[in-house]
Structures are given as structure tokens and as C-alpha cells.
Design goal:
The chain is an alpha/beta fold. It has helices spanning 7-19, 26-32, 81-97, 118-132, 151-165, 189-204, 221-232, 255-265, 279-284, 301-304, 322-330, 338-341, 344-358, 364-388, 394-413, and strands spanning 37-46, 52-63, 69-75, 104-109, 141-145, 213-217, 236-242, 245-248, 275-277, 289-292, 311-313, 334-336. Strands 9-8-7-6-10-11-12 form a seven-stranded mixed β-sheet, with helices on both faces. A five-stranded mixed β-sheet has the order 1-2-4-3-5. Bound molecules: nicotinamide-adenine-dinucleotide (NAD).
Length: 417
């Protein structure tokens, strides 16, 4: 069964849910629910056989009241205008809830990158960067990697921008390779903020995370690093999964060894000493903590009734359908929302930008320390709103904090012209 919602409508609903608890003028609320502008463009580039191909691409700049637009660029056949709009809005509220001085943006090209050679992807990326050039910039809009893009694409975009502008502007994009101006600690950032969010939540609940059990769905960048860092706290990682299936060991898996096994064999399945279980069994296992770190809409209303974890920390973006979220709230299961828990990526992107602007490098220790400070302060803000306003769950609390910050920034600037 699927109760997936249109992502743009889900975003608007989340803002409405938060606004009920705030005193915001209706006209301003409408502004907070819609993008300021969306670029829709068609990119024509040369294939390796000399033929030309034209593909659709977007960049949505949702809200810039708190700072330059910030958000990734994805390459995926499922990219749509509505999806890009929604994702750009979530970036606004993600940056606001962790209080970094950015607005939100998102972009995408509607392609399956697996169908193109590296040279074709480079020409396409440079073509997109040329279209984006008038609207991006270190103080305007700062893209980053997203689904199917990474350091390579970011380095090409930086190079295209700097060449056309005849300048040096490493802060025009984040998620770059270290030698092109990237930051230490960026690769680990999302897994680290997930671990920190879990640690803070358990402390708030008066529970010992060092004695807890955890199941992790998805064993890529976010999931495998969160598992490793939780294991470092003493948490027992009893189950993990990837797209090929799950593995379970009630005595605890070694997350590093599972990662090595996956690198060698392509899957977590078959890891020595573990039993195979299904992906759904990983999500419904009786554990203290569940970390969904795969795709959106992983837990729907039906599955939510079978979830046995006490706490869910969302490493993935939107792993719960809106119906599942309601069921879990009713069942008293604590859900630590994605906009906060997986914000480590954008927070360290912000540190990368700060280092680029100041032309200096931070050590990995400094990045880790600053990330911990930003996450713990953001958690305090969410809990304060949750308790003081008697809100229904932590997601609403995070949106109340974030929407209020954006509305205040707009009000302080005033309406002009
Ligand atoms: P990734 O591609 O590195 O890993 C995804 C993992 O999920 C893979 O191991 C894949 O096999 C697994 N998977 C896919 N379908 C599955 C299924 N049905 N059941 C179980 N596992 C499944 O991606 P990532 O960068 O780790 O991102 C994961 C999630 O975290 C996404 O929702 C992403 O939007 C979100 N996120 C990532 C970052 C980041 O910096 N990497 C930042 C913010 C949010």
C-alpha cells in the first residue's frame, strides 16, 4: 500500500501545521509556502557520437529572507518542477531550524546519469552551470551535491562559474573535493548529525544510548556512518539493510566490518554470523532506536502500526509518509525529524563556505566540534518549543522554530516595494 503525497503539498501542510501555533499574517504565510522563483530551462549538449540532445532542468529559489539560497542539484529521471519546489522549501526550514544564515534552493536535471559517459555529463553540467551563472554566486545562491551528483560535478560547476566570471569564487558551490576548496568532515557530516540527534534525544528522555539497540535501514553514506558513530557510543547495532535485503545479529554487528563486506560484495547480505531478514523486518524490529537512512516514504501507514522502536531518527529525507507520521505520533513513538537530524550535510557545507570566504582551512576536529555545537543548540531550541507550546510532536516543534525565524526575518526587513 502506498499513501505517498505530492511533495509540494506535504511541505505546505507542514508549514500550515506549524503556523497554527504562531501569529503570522495570512499574506506572509502564503509567501512562506511558495518559491520566490523557479528557473526552468532546456539544456542542449553534444553526445559522444556528435548528435545533440536537449534535456529539462530546474533551479528553485524558495526563500532568501535569512541569507543566500542553498541546496543541492540532483540528476534523476524523476526530477519534476513540483519536487524541486518542495525540496527547495525543505532547505529553507532545515537551514532555519539549525540557525545557519541561509535561505533554501534546489535544482535538478531530468536524466538518468547512468545513460551518459563522463564526457557527456561534463558537457551537460557545464551547460547547466552556464544557465545558472546569472542567478548563483557566493552571496546569491550556493548549490551543492544531491542524488547522483558529487564532488566531480561540483568541481565542474565551480570551474565553469569562475572561468565565465573571470574570478576566484570557491564559495559559489559546496561539496567540492578538498583540493578544490572542500571541507574536512563533509563526507561524515550527515551520519554524524544523525548520531548527535539520537544522543541528544536519549539524554532528553533520560535513557542511556550506550545501552540501546539500533536498526539502520540503508547502508550508504548516511546509514553506514551513523551506524559506526553510534557503535562508538556503545549502542548495539543489531540490524542493517540495503536495497538487496537486511541482516540481523542480536549480539550486535560490527558496522566497520559490515561496510567492508558491502564494499567487497556489493551488499550487506551474507555478512558472517548474521541471519538474513527482510527490509520490512528491519523496520519493525523490537529495538530502542530505528534510523531510516534509505529513501523517502519507506514507512507507510500500514508499516507504522508494526514499528516497535521507541525512537526514530530520520537520516533520510521524508522516510515517513504523512499518514505514518500521524500513526507514530498517536502511538507515542518519538520521531526526530529529518530537517534537524540530517542537517549535518548542509551545516558542514556552511562551514565549507565560511572557510572559502575566509581563504583558510579548518581541521577536522574543529569541524566536528562546531557541528556538535550547532546540533546541540538546535535540539535545545526544538525541545524548548515542544515543551513550552505543548506541541504534538518534535516535527511540529522543529517547523514552529523554523517558520517563526523565517517570518521574523521577513518582518524585520519590511515589505518593499
Ligand atoms: P546512498 O546512496 O549513499 O545510500 C542509500 C542506501 O539506501 C544504499 O545502501 C541503498 O542500497 C539503500 N537502499 C535503497 N533502497 C532501499 C530499501 N528499499 N531498503 C533498504 N535500503 C535501501 O545515499 P545517502 O547519501 O546515504 O542518502 C540516504 C538518505 O539520506 C536519502 O534520503 C538522502 O536524501 C538523505 N540525506 C543524505 C545526505 C548526505 O549528505 N548524504 C544529506 C541529507 C539527507
Amino acid at each position: 500500500m502506498s499513501d505517498e503525497a505530492n511533495p509540494f503539498e506535504s511541505l505546505q501542510e507542514q508549514i500550515d501545521d506549524a503556523a497554527v501555533h504562531l501569529d503570522i499574517d495570512d499574506g506572509v504565510l502564503e509567501r512562506l509556502k511558495r518559491p520566490e522563483r523557479v528557473l526552468e530551462t532546456n539544456l542542449t549538449f553534444e553526445r559522444d557520437d556528435g548528435s545533440l540532445e536537449t534535456v529539462r532542468a530546474y533551479r528553485s529559489q524558495f526563500n532568501g529572507d535569512r541569507g543566500p539560497y542553498k541546496g543541492g542539484i540532483r540528476y534523476h529521471p524523476g526530477v519534476t518542477r513540483d519536487e524541486v519546489k518542495a525540496l527547495s522549501g525543505w532547505m529553507v526550514y532545515k537551514c532555519a531550524v539549525v540557525d545557519i544564515p541561509y535561505g533554501g534552493g534546489k535544482g535538478g536535471i531530468e536524466i538518468d546519469p547512468a545513460e551518459y559517459s563522463m564526457a557527456e555529463l561534463e558537457r551537460l553540467t557545464r551547460s547547466f552551470a552556464t544557465e545558472l551563472r546569472p542567478i548563483i554566486g557566493e552571496d546569491r545562491d550556493i548549490p551543492a551535491p544531491d542524488v547522483n551528483t558529487g564532488q566531480r560535478e561540483m568541481n565542474w560547476i565551480k570551474n565553469t562559474y569562475e572561468t565565465l566570471e573571470n574570478t576566484t569564487a570557491p564559495g559559489v558551490i559546496t561539496g567540492k573535493a578538498i583540493d578544490s576548496g572542500g571541507s574536512a568532515g563533509r563526507v561524515e557530516a550527515t551520519g554524524r548529525s544523525t548520531m548527535l540527534a539520537a544522543r541528544e534525544t536519549f539524554e532528553w528522555l533520560g535513557r542511556d544510548i550506550g545501552n540501546a539497540t539500533v536498526a539502520v535501514q540503508g547502508y550508504g553514506n548516511a546509514g553506514s556512518i551513523a551506524a559506526r558513530l553510534l557503535d562508538d557510543l556503545g549502542t548495539r547495532v543489531v540490524a542493517v539493510s540495503d536495497s538487496s535485503g537486511g541482516i540481523h545479529d542480536p549480539d550486535g554487528l560490527d558496522p566497520r566490518a559490515v561496510r567492508e563486506h558491502k564494499s567487497e560484495t556489493g551488499a550487506v547480505e551474507g555478512y558472517s554470523g548474521s541471519e538474513s531478514i527482510t527490509n520490512d523486518e528491519v523496520l519493525t524490529l523490537d529495538v530502542d532506536l530505528l534510523v531510516p537512512a534509505a529513501l523517502g516514504n519507506a514507512i507507510d501507514t500500514d508499516l507504522a502500526t508494526d514499528v516497535s522502536a521507541d525512537v526514530i531518527v530520520e537520516a533520510a529525507n521524508g522516510p515517513l509518509t504523512p499518514g505514518a507520521d500521524d500513526v507514530l505520533t498517536e502511538r507515542g513513538i518519538r520521531v526526530v525529524p529529518d530537517v534537524f537530524a540530517n542537517a549535518g550535510g548542509v551545516i558542514v557545507s556552511y562551514f565549507e563556505w565560511v572557510q572559502n570566504r575566509q581563504r583558510l582551512h579548518w581541521t577536522e576536529e574543529r569541524v566536528t566540534e562546531e557541528l556538535e555545537r550547532v546540533i546541540t543548540e538546535a535540539f535545545e531550541g526544538i525541545i524548548e518549543a515542544y515543551e513550552a507550546r505543548d506541541l504534538q510532536n518534535l516535527r511540529t516543534a522543529a517547523y514552529v522554530v523554523a517558520v517563526e525565524r523565517v517570518a521574523n526575518a521577513y518582518a524585520q526587513g519590511g515589505t518593499w516595494p
